[in-house]
Amino acid sequence: MSLNVVPCYNESLSLPIFYQALSEVMNKLKDADYEIILINDGSTDSTLSTQKELAQKDQRVKYLSFSR
Fold first, then answer.
1. Whether residue 17 has pLDDT greater than 90
2. Phi-psi sector, 30: left (phi>0), alpha (psi -120 to 50), beta
3. What is the pLDDT of residue 67?
4. Strand order, beta sheet including 34-41
5. Are 51 and 5 spatial neighbours (Cβ–Cβ below 8 Å)?
């Protein structure tokens, strides 16, 4: 299994674009089983909400949220 750990800080606008691009690459790899772990590092925008939405749509997406 391939783990993709992604730190996120105020990335609510770019996160869906990044997720789409990474998913396209990973899906092209034959027999690639992968998981995307998004780590919210104290964002002050809606990054956490965006992470939750992505996780609801794709079971391979997980998220953690740190507070400062």
1. yes
2. beta
3. 73
4. 2-8, 34-41, 61-66
5. no
